[in-house]
Design a protein that fits this description.
By secondary structure, the protein is α+β, with helices and mostly antiparallel strands. 24% of the residues lie in helices and 49% in strands.
Amino acid sequence: MRHLVRYIIIAILVIAGFHSGVAQTVGYLHKPLSPEGCHVEYNVSKQDSSYFIIATVTSDRLIFLDNPTMKIRTFNDDVITLEGDAIGNRNGVSFGYSIGYVGVSESEIKSTAQFYITPDVFLLLKDGVAKVRLSMRPMNHEREFKKDKIGFALYQLYLDAKNKDENF
């Protein structure tokens, strides 16, 4: 029963994602039905003349370290290491359901960090991301991709942020 509820919630989130229009973020679900499962979203931000990748991880236990790192391997075998700063964590109950007369709530933590990145590195991401690792506690988040899901999208978000500043 519990797995059925999770499947339904995941299906609703996926359908809502398709109908959200133009995406300002790029993300993915990672092992959604396992204890280390999480939802990860990436965005690009420009602050003054610096660019940042903003990563938000929603799970029931993963929290960014104070000075996290993001390791990225592209499909061209370039390895990129980005240094970051934890922005914050939000705790809350995302949803609940009842089984008989017992109410069960699923709690979630949204942990956010920003990683400094240069325009030259964005050009490397354009070729696609094969693997990403985020330093977190109690364990690192790591995901491998058979085909690009976030690299080219992050490059497009970088171009959008750059154009917003130039076309003020």
